[in-house]
Structures are given as structure tokens and as C-alpha cells.
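Researcher: Here's a chain I'd like modeled. Treat it as a single chain, no partners, no ligands.
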Amino acid sequence: MKIVVSGGTGFIGTPLVSRLRERGDEVVVLSRDPKHGVEWHPPSPGPWVSQVREADAVVNLAGESIAGGRWTESRKAQLTSSRLIPLRALIGAKPRVLIEASAVGFYGYISDETFDETAARGPGFLAELVDKWESAARQADSFARVALLRFGVVLDKTAAR
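Model: Modeled as a single isolated chain. C-alpha cells:
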């Protein structure tokens, strides 16, 4: 399979790309740094568009880390744009399959309930961000198979130093 991964040099993307390659998949990483893959600067078009159109699947992991600093108003704007701008660019390239990283933050900060994908959105900035993010991804429903993956906290013992 040919799989395009945006955010393929990040915390989750790096091991994913490695595992996909070990499995024998052809993996194309979209990166701001051409040393790491096909250069892309969304929303600007470029050679990455044909890679997305030719791929069997696109995995979108692009976005600033939510743990990267205090959530000031400017940081919130950065967290939002770092997810929506790349996602909208990918959708514009019309992938056949879009696997979109999302977050359990959709449910808000309520800790004593059990949630599934039918649960309503919770309160707070992260819940609002995830709602915007997933709504944008669903814009591809008319031409692509869309899978939304709501990640919780991701830990890696090799990264803790």
C-alpha cells in the first residue's frame, strides 16, 4: 500500500512511519523540511498534492502539540490553525481514504463517566477544538472513507529522559 503521512516526523508519526515501512508499505512523509520527505507548506499546492491523490490512504497527524505550552489566546489560535489548515489542504487534494488523528478531549474534563463515539461533546477549549477538527474532516465524506481516531494521552518510555 502507498500511505501518505502528514506529521510523520512527530511523536506519533515517527514510530508509525517506521512500522508501516517494516510492514512493507510505501510511505510518503509530508514535511516542511524536504530532508524528511515530500515538502509541503499547506495550504500552498505542490508535488504533495499528487502524492495524496495517488495514495491508498492518508494519515493526518499534523498539528502542534497540545502539551507544548500554556493555552494563551495566541497559543489556542496556533493549536487550531496547525490542525485545520493542513487538514483542509489534504481534503482539497481529495484522498481516497483519510485517517484523521483526533483526541479524547472531545468529551471534556468529566472523569466519572464512560464515553463512546455517540457521546455528546463536552465543555472547554479542547472539546471545541476537536469538534472543529472532526467537522472539517467530515467534509471529505462525499469522496473519501474517513476514519476519526480519538487518541488519549500518548506515552513513550524511550522519550522520557
